[in-house]
Specification:
The structure is a single chain. It is built from one helix and nine strands; from the N terminus they run αβββββββββ. By secondary structure, the protein is mainly β. The protein has a single domain, classed as OB fold (Dihydrolipoamide Acetyltransferase, E2P) (Beta Barrel). A six-stranded mixed β-sheet has the order 3-2-1-7-8-4. A three-stranded antiparallel β-sheet has the order 5-6-9, with no helix packed on it. β2 and β3 form a beta hairpin. The relative contact order is 0.26.
Length: about 110
């Protein structure tokens, strides 16, 4: 899916003869909005969000015992959060969020939910 989105934007960029790398800050998550370069805000409808930036949960069930108390659910990918910085690729009127801007030394942990 991400590859398809990147191809679509790349094709738009070639036809428009320009693509731009932008930086933004997540302003809200429901609905998602991103403040770009402190100049303008993009609503969720204008953003293409790769699956890798959406929340991902993993449910683990004990294989030998049918005991619900042993079942666990873990969040292995956290969704975008207010205040996080992101990199965007803009072309042809579309904005693809390429990823988060990491914080040096920050380690993301898998957490139980």
């Amino acid at each position: 899916m991400l590859t398809q989105l990147m191809r679509q934007i790349a094709a738009s960029a070639v036809s428009a003869a320009q693509a731009e790398l932008l930086f933004g800050v997540v302003q809200s998550v429901s609905p998602l909005s991103v403040l770009v370069d402190q100049r303008f805000t993009l609503p969720e409808e204008a953003l293409l969000i790769p699956q890798e930036l959406e929340e991902s949960l993993l449910r683990v069930q004990h294989p030998m015992v049918e005991e619900p108390d042993l079942d666990r659910t873990y969040r292995i990918v956290t969704p975008l959060a207010v205040g996080e910085q992101v990199i965007l690729l803009a072309a042809g009127g579309q904005y693809l969020i390429l990823g988060r801007i990491g914080v040096p030394g920050r380690i993301r942990h898998i957490e139980e939910v």
